[in-house]
Amino acid sequence: MKQFKFISINIILFVLFVILIVWKLTLFSDSSKTVFSQYGILEMFKRLFAFFVHGESFSPLREGIMLVSFGAIILLFFWTIFLKIRKQIIALLILDFVLSLIILADTLYYRYFEDLISSAVLLQIKQMSSLGSSVGDLFKWSDLILFADLLVFVPLSIFILKNFTLVQNANPFLRSGIGLLTGIAGAWLFFYPLHDFVQKGGAYLFDKTLSSMRVYEVTGLLGFHGYDTYKYLDEYVFNKKKVNAEERKDAKQWFEEKNNTQDKTTYKGKAAGKNLIMVQLEAYQSFVIDKKIKGQEITPNLNKLKQESLYFNDIHHQTASGRTSDAEFSANTSLYPLPTGSVYVRYPRNEYDSLPAILKENGYDTAAFHAYKPGFWNRYIAYPNLGFNEFHSLEDFDDREKIGWSISDESFFIQSMYKMKEMKEPFYSFLVALTSHYPYTIPAKYQELDLEGVGDVNLRNYLQSIHYVDKAIGTFVEKLKQEGLWDSSVIVFYGDHDSGYMQENTPSVNFAQQEDDALGELEVKSGIPLFIHAPGIEAKEIDKTGGQIDIMPTLLDLFGIDEQKYHHMGHNLLNDQEGFVSFRYGSVKTDKLYYQSAVDLNPKNGTCYDLTSREKVPMKTCYPLYEKNIKELDVSDSVIYGNLIQRWNQE
Ligand code: GP9
Ligand code: MN
Q: Among the four residues 156, 180, 368, 494, which has the most C-beta atoms within 10 Å?
């Protein structure tokens, strides 16, 4: 009986602690305007009960992060029940203080960056130029409520510890037994909702780590910090990708060989000293260019621009799971994205021979523009490191005209243009548009095409959205002309990746494909447009295979900047060599051949097509392409995993 009395003190202390911390976590949810729980604690436990006893279905995460938050605290601190009462009181007070500090730090950080403090942030903190305001400005007196309980409990505990001897405790076996049971319950409360979430298709979140807040919305605050620490240890300590001396040598040799082949083009330096305005368009594919439906052009403005620009008609996206961020990365560093995850998230602090950094060396002012949360894809960490002086994110834009995820592209382009006008010339502005994001549903008033009877609803929504963005581009071009930037700037438009509807035999792929054979389908799947408009350069359609890693070498040629001293994987699309694009998933296309890799990447199971006869040819014809793909991806991965550019620059 006595034992029971003592262990219940351990339990009461623990329960009190758990409730207090959960309450503090709700304060963070309030200040970050994220959902903690759709309904109260009682309803949650009622549903849990119904789930256990009556086998009713239960999707805890759809209702908020209350359950995982309870689970995380219990799982992390159940061991305090093992302690004798005296020690437990001290441990819980210290933990309460530390957790309150963490919650306070996240609250202040969130107020400025709308993000959580992650390992990437902590490692980058010195370089974060955008931390304009001091911590003092972010702090509110009401934040002290996080420590209010300690004001009561610390003196109370000191009083109790001083005046009562508290020598009697439940025996260690009972404490360990109850503690362990509590731990198991905590593990269930934490992991069951996550398991349920992953089962219902949420696994992508952990593969990609889109943003810390996205993870938080599933794991809660403590869960996020736990996950982030695990990711950090996995990436940088336990499974750190090592690049050995031989791999370094191989990579170096690869660049030396590549850089030894000087390519001469008639374009060299033709745009020297001009501004560069490069626009990455969301999910923009090339099959829409010049295409008509019932007499309507899908992209009338881009079609017109094509008549005045260098238009590259056989360019392919090379992105992997880092999607938009992969495209940005490849276009701005001429390296391949990683096989998993986004470089922006995994290696944001590496040194790269990036476009903004190189242009900066050449006297350019640089800025990135993307009207979305700065933490998404870790951009606010990645951009300054790539060499962008300024990052204009959602909070820097007037957000009255909204479509889908953010402000409309038209509003985004125009506002960005006015910000560019404030920049010191020559400048490089990199814009990442967003309106044509999956699922492509835009309000009826913006749907201008008559698409009755065309494809399926996915394709129709996609085309409406693409058409809208084209219109926004038209307005943007007009404005650039009016404001005098058109003639002093090189303007680039390209797409980031496919629409997501390009699987075998979908209405989208059928609509897109030009040749009605298996190869025709392959050819259009990954096609993205690339326009380079440069004042004084004659329009030309360039029918050469290429990818996003080729954008930078091509631009450097136009700007007259010698490419040979840099570590770029891509090739100048304006030279007279054969075009080549290598995909992260193993396939390769050249101007003459298409090697379609098998899922197991084994070349024996791959397919080789001759693009002239459009027939399958023996795999041995494509074997060199297979080898080139493996080699290039290896070199690029070594550069990233080993931060080799930094290493070479220091040698
Ligand atoms: C949001 C945007 C997301 O910032 O980049 O695009 P996604 O990677 O989902 O295509
Ligand atoms: Mn995208």
A: 368
